[in-house]
Design brief:
Keywords: Acetylation, Leucine-rich repeat, Repeat, Ubl conjugation pathway. InterPro entries: ARM-like, ARM-type_fold, Armadillo, LRR_dom_sf, LRR_Zer-1, ZER1-like_C, Zyg-11_UBL_adapter. Belongs to the zyg-11 family. By secondary structure, the chain is an alpha/beta fold. Among the domains are: about 15-145 and about 170-190; about 470-610, Leucine-rich Repeat Variant; about 620-750, no CATH class. It contains 32 helices and 14 strands. The strands form 3 sheets. It has a 10-stranded parallel β-sheet with strand order 3-4-5-8-9-10-11-12-13-14. About 40% of the residues are buried.
Length: about 750
């Protein structure tokens, strides 16, 4: 089902929501005074649509760099008569006090505020407006929501230094929140009295106090008849805590896990504590004890442990205290404990580090609120993907994508996640992935490149992009990818390996794409960037892959794109060409790439006069004799000269070398080539070659063009015969055979 799920198109609802959010002005809204968004007066939207609009908006702002947030977005939902909100999930810096204030008249049932660090105590007051309807509330990581700004009285000079002091609000409680059942106060700021804060709540069902240090939790027993879920992640426990937990007999989910790297914990788990839980918490279906050190051995003897088929039956449990369970647990968290490596674990889902299944369960369970654990779990997945083969590929990919999206600014997750993606998208897994999924990978990779100038992330992201078919699979983000790569290549200090991969990607991106793409990339500074790289390499006297790829990229981007050819000349490209030729006389690949590029320049009539100097013509004539890369260098040099000759005698504005002498050398070169040569060249169109057929000005140019066509259609008939027919080459050849000025051997070849 996962395969199908990832492959199915987005729902119409999702597509419409996305479209409306990207085009608010053209759909739901108009602009008042050119700045404030206002809802059209005839629009009425139910909560199913409004919730989706708000939640998707938050997601887009967070994960799509091109999406522009709107100052006044939340004001669209200020009037419950036209827009209804019920369940919304807001995250991080996207939401501010005035945004919550704007929707205060809504009857919210569920409000999740996750890591919203910009919210202050003003928002606590706004929460009171939702008190009569709110059932579920999360303030996880909202580190400033209990702070208000206080202006010191009689402020003189002090104001300039410290205009506002942050003061902890002590008097707020959940008084009046009569329907509140689910509450997450994870990572609550120190100094707030949790007991006083919570006392007014009549019947809590779920409470999350992650990362809060409380020495006395006896107050929890006031909900012993209603509490079904309790999370005390990273709370330093003691015997008193355990005794209180054992009284919460209705608990179905208990999480006392910890991050074993975060700080020193005195508490150690014992067999007695686990026995206490099993005996007293008879409804337990989910337990998380990840990260704990076991003080004593809780396992059964190893002989017995290894016996029989792996079983989840409590009676066969390798962890002795769990033999008292009535039925297997739905979930058991054992990540970074020794227990996860045992054979018989009485749970349907286990988080741990023993195998792929356990690691994926860990990533799934901890991504949202515990990036510090998730990054270590992804690191384990990275090893599995690198060394073994992933058996749950789609699930793994989806989980890593979610983690990267959720923690765009967490360096550890970006480093481990981008590395894992490289191995999860490589060719052996290719068949199992849908277009949609591969596009999601590309999106998060580009997000990572945008957010992090850090070398490891950049390298991982570039390497991952190499796993895709370029340019086809990157076409939908074409501008963005090119901008990011050029950005990498324009940095003053550069990592060699990243530079090499980035130039390779740039080259692949401009190969075999439409001319409008090439023009757009040219305008982004592509030509200039490549020439700068060549300049640097020349100064270092190195001709490496970066040098060759840069010339190859210029060859590709100038193909039938006159603007880019002109840029090449304007930015002293010819000077670099001559210097490279002189510095690296033996580098065949380089010569081929440079001459391929000059062939493109020579095809542009307006630019040819700039090639008409004694120096350039001598260089091209001498290269006619080159044996570099088979016939390629000689062939391209002859192509350049063929276009120049086509401009006629009057265009030959130099005394040396003589035109006739060059023509003679061209004939000699063409006659020396093997007509069956296999080629290192790729034509998308024959137009520039066909141009040279119907003319009597330069028979040698006509001969070069005919030779080129003859060679390509005879060596690669399947590819080039259809192209020749499609572009009208047949009548041109027939007419040429009748021309008096054409040489006999040219006509023979044409026939």
């Amino acid at each position: 089902s996962l395969k199908m799920a990832s492959d199915s198109p987005e729902s119409l609802m999702t597509l419409c929501t996305d479209y409306c959010l990207r085009n608010l002005e053209g759909t739901l809204c108009y602009l008042l005074d050119n700045e404030t968004l206002r809802l059209h007066p005839d629009i009425f939207l139910p909560s199913e649509i409004c919730d989706k609009l708000v939640n998707e908006y938050v997601e887009l702002v967070k994960t799509d760099s091109i999406f522009e947030p709107h100052e006044s977005f939340f004001t669209l939902f200020s009037d419950p008569r036209s827009t209804r909100l019920a369940r919304i999930h807001l995250r991080e810096h996207i939401v501010q006090d005035q945004d919550l204030e704007a929707i205060r008249k809504q009857d919210l049932i569920e409000l999740y505020l996750t890591n919203c660090e910009k919210l202050t105590a003003k928002s606590l007051q706004t929460l009171v407006s939702f008190s009569h309807t709110l059932i579920s509330l999360s303030l996880f990581g909202c580190s400033n929501i209990f702070y208000e700004e206080e202006n010191p009285g009689g402020c003189e000079d002090d104001c300039l230094v410290n205009p506002t002091r942050q003061v902890l609000v002590k008097d707020f409680t959940f008084e009046g929140f009569s329907r509140l059942r689910i509450l997450n106060l994870g990572r609550l700021i120190e100094g707030v009295n949790v007991e006083t804060l919570l006392r007014p709540l009549a019947s809590l069902a779920a409470l999350d106090l992650s990362g809060i240090q409380l020495n006395d939790v006896a107050f929890l027993t006031q909900w012993k008849d209603s509490l079904v879920s309790l999370v005390l992640y990273n709370m330093d426990l003691s015997e008193e805590h355990i005794q209180v937990i054992a009284q919460l007999r209705k608990l179905r989910h208990l999480d006392i896990s910890r991050d074993h790297l975060s700080s020193y914990y005195k508490f150690k788990l014992t067999r007695r504590v686990l026995n206490l839980f099993v005996e007293n918490l008879v409804n337990l279906t989910s337990l998380d004890i990840s990260g704990h050190t076991m003080l004593e051995n809780c396992t059964i003897p190893s002989m017995e442990e290894k016996m029989g088929q792996t079983s989840i039956e409590p009676a066969k449990s390798s962890i002795a205290p769990f033999r008292g369970l009535k039925r297997p647990l739905q979930f058991l968290g054992l990540f970074e404990t020794s227990l996860c490596r045992l054979t018989h674990i009485p749970a349907y889902k286990v988080s741990g580090d023993k195998n792929e299944e356990q690691v994926l369960n860990a990533i799934e369970a901890y991504t949202e609120h515990r990036p510090e654990i998730t990054s270590r779990a992804i690191n384990l997945l990275f090893d599995i993907a690198r060394i073994e083969r992933c058996s749950q590929l789609l699930r793994a990919l989806q989980l890593v994508i979610t983690a990267l999206k959720c923690h765009k600014d967490d360096k550890n997750i970006q480093v481990t996640g981008s590395a894992a993606l490289f191995y999860l998208t490589n060719s052996e897994y290719r068949m199992e992935q849908s277009v949609k999924l591969r596009r999601q990978v590309i999106q998060v990779v580009l997000n990572g490149m945008e957010s992090y100038q850090e070398v490891t992330v950049q390298r991982n992201c570039c390497l991952t992009l190499c796993n895709f078919s370029i340019p086809e699979e990157l076409e939908f983000q074409y501008r963005r990818v090119n901008e990011l790569l050029l950005n990498i290549l324009n940095q003053s200090r550069q990592d060699e390996s990243i530079q090499r991969i980035a130039v390779h990607l740039c080259n692949a991106l401009v190969c075999q794409v439409d001319n409008d793409h090439k023009e757009a990339v040219g305008k982004m500074g592509f030509v200039m960037t490549m020439l700068k790289l060549i300049q640097k390499k020349l100064a270092d006297k190195t001709c490496d892959q970066v040098m060759e790829f840069s010339w190859s990229a210029l060859w590709n981007i100038t193909d039938e794109t006159p603007d880019n050819c002109e840029m090449f000349l304007n930015y002293s490209g010819m000077k670099l060409f001559l210097e490279c030729l002189k510095e690296f006389p033996e580098k065949q690949e380089l010569h081929r790439n440079m001459l391929g590029l000059l062939g493109n320049v020579a095809e542009v009539k307006e630019l040819r006069p700039q090639l008409m100097t004694s120096q350039f013509i001598s260089v091209f004539s001498n290269l006619l004799e080159s044996k570099a890369d088979g016939i390629e260098v000689s062939y391209n040099a002859c192509g350049v000269l063929s276009h120049i000759m086509f401009d006629g005698l009057e265009a030959w504005g130099i005394c040396e070398p003589h035109r006739e002498e060059v023509v003679k050398r061209m004939w000699a070169a063409i006659q020396s080539w093997d007509i069956n040569s296999r080629r290192n060249i790729n034509y998308r169109s024959f137009e520039p070659i066909l141009r040279l057929l119907p003319q009597g000005i330069s028979p040698v140019s006509q001969h070069w063009a005919t030779w080129a066509l003859y060679n390509l259609v005879s060596v690669y008939p399947d590819k080039y015969c259809p192209l020749l027919i499609k572009e009208g080459g047949i009548p041109l050849l027939k007419d040429m055979i009748k021309m008096a000025s054409a040489r006999q051997e040219t006509k023979e070849m044409a026939r």
